[in-house]
Amino acid sequence: MVKINNTEVGQVGFGLMGMSPLPFPPPPIPPLSNHPLRPNLARLPPSESQSFSAMKTALTHNSTFWNGGELYGTPSSNSLQLLTSYFTAHPSDASKVVLSIKGGCIPGTMAQPDGSAANIRRSIDECLRVLDGKKSLDLFEAARLDPNVPVEETVGAIVEYIREGKVGGLSLSEVNAATIRKTGQFRKFEDIPEDSMLRHMPRFQPDVFDDNIKLLHEVEKIAEKKNATPGQVALGWVIAHSGKNGLGEIIPIPGATTEERVKENTAPAKLTDEDMKVISDILKKFPVQGHRYPAALQGHLEQ
């Protein structure tokens, strides 16, 4: 079993992003009036009771590595407030979770990094203030590297808090990371709800949707043989790369807002070497079309 900060965690983590209200695009990404992600397009979070139920289910299924963000939501309503409320209601669960928090952005934005030592300190102090001792800050990560600030300055500021015992460790986000395509219930572009942010993501655009859906159809064939969902096959594919071909240990952190989805995510498909070869051949035949994010949100990825 993988260890983080000398603590064993389950093979699948738990992402909290979907449990916070998210404006799209996160301001300020100029020009807002012409941006393909409308500034008035927002997602309402699930109820607190639904979120708590999903969080409890994650622990029940050994999904103990949780990832949230100061940037997931607004300064007054994000992952940190949710976590504080949860651990206030369930204090015994705090020691069961290894918590990783993304921060280091300009307050009120989700994609505008400020990696300066001053802002990293502000961000960590804010995380600790909101958590209010209800849960330790086990890992802190800059959500995006700031191209205008040396990474040594950003990391150095986090290390100061580690040495002081206020933060357990550091991690990095969107740093030359390999990603997999999310599969879902949509069969054509028109199936995507009008208010869904997926309508603004490059891989879901009409000119590439039909090509990308072919990949899903092939994954569905594998899923059917495994008595699994395409999402479980995708998670199994990620886990199968863990510790192989020079890679480190990999823990996927899929987000979920319902008990049912948490249960699905914590039961990834077990893929054989032959399965992996089949998927490799599929990816060669049906390469993913389009970037994960629109151009305006790509500037701080994979640095």
TrEMBL record:
The keyword Oxidoreductase applies. It comes from the Eukaryota. SUPFAM superfamilies: NAD(P)-linked oxidoreductase. Pfam families: Aldo_ket_red. Keywords: Oxidoreductase. One of its GO terms (molecular function) is oxidoreductase activity. InterPro entries: Aldo-Keto_reductase (IPR050791), NAD(P)_OxRdtase_dom_sf (IPR036812), NADP_OxRdtase_dom (IPR023210). Residues 45-183, 184-282 form the NADP-dependent oxidoreductase domain. GO terms for cellular component: cytoplasm. PANTHER family: AFLATOXIN B1 ALDEHYDE REDUCTASE, PYRIDOXAL REDUCTASE-RELATED. This is NADP-dependent oxidoreductase domain-containing protein. It comes from Pseudopithomyces chartarum.
